[in-house]
Amino acid sequence: MTKRDEAKQDYLAGMKYKEIAEKYDVSESTVKQWKRRYWSDENVTKTKKVTPKVTKKVTPEPKLHPAIQELEESSLNDRQKRFVMEYVRLSNATQAYINAYGCEYSTARVNGSALLTNTDIQNEIKRLHTARMAEQSVGVFDLVDDLIVEAKADVRDFAEWGSNEFEAIDEESGKQYTRHKSWVALKDSNSVDSKAIKKITVGKDGPIVELHDRNKARDRLLEKLLGKGVFADGDGEQKININMDSFEEENDGNN
Fold it and tell me: What pLDDT score was predicted for residue 53?
């Protein structure tokens, strides 16, 4: 294959005259002459470079959640709809009113509570709450189960304690006596149901395990079962103060 034939293949592949001339060490006019005499358009179809058409991506408009769409289509005005959304998000009528109406705190404190008495707004709030709970696969029985765990929680579910006896000699009198060594230990986290635990902190005397309010949980259960619940006053909180370092109790040395 001659140089001219090889150049022809490059021309068909889309190379420019100048590029072909440089490759084969000839003048650009020579390449153009080859094209006119030997690579006529009647005999040759040159491959054209086609720039692909770039399709502009169109970002679809986000679809509203069905529950939100129903709120948008409700008879509430725009500010009331905003109040409903903010209240569902914050569970705070005053702040929800401030966000929706852009007013001062003193005004929002009064008007927020008043707005919650509006039947239409109550219905929308309840509907949105129900839709959210259903979306998260949380039903009334799940909530009742959690209340039962809190109501039945017992200190023994989370800690163990006891006392050991051993003989010792009093350094001053030289008499033998019995000493008691008490101990307290948390159970392994993998072996307990943490739903009943409100929080765990570490104090100067060791870890403190605070359970959810048993009385409150029982009160809620009775409300569901009987429609009422009566308990003695008091915070009802249970705290277990656990000193992880064993402590000792010593008798008078008379044993």
Answer: 64
Is the pLDDT assigned to residue 251 strictly greater than 50? no
Residue pair 237/213 in contact by the 8 Å Cβ criterion: yes
What pLDDT, on the 0 to 100 scale, is given for residue 112? 94
- The pTM (predicted TM-score) of the whole model is 0.38
The DSSP secondary structure of the chain, one letter per residue, reads: --HHHHHHHHHHTT--HHHHHHHHT--HHHHHHHHHHHS-TTT--PPPP-PPPPPPP-PPPPPPPHHHHHHHTSSS-HHHHHHHHHHHHH--HHHHHHHHH---HHHHHHHHHHHTT-HHHHHHHHHHHHHHHHHTT--HHHHHHHHHHHHH--GGGTEEEEEEEEEEE-TTT--EEEEEEEEEEEPPGGGS-GGGEEEEEEETTEEEEEE--HHHHHHHHHHHHHS-----SS---EEEE--SS-EEEE--S--
For 112, residues 6+ apart whose C-beta sits below 8 A from its C-beta are: 83, 93, 94, 95, 96, 97, 98
Q: What is the pLDDT of residues 199-213, one digit of tens each?
A: 878 777 777 778 878
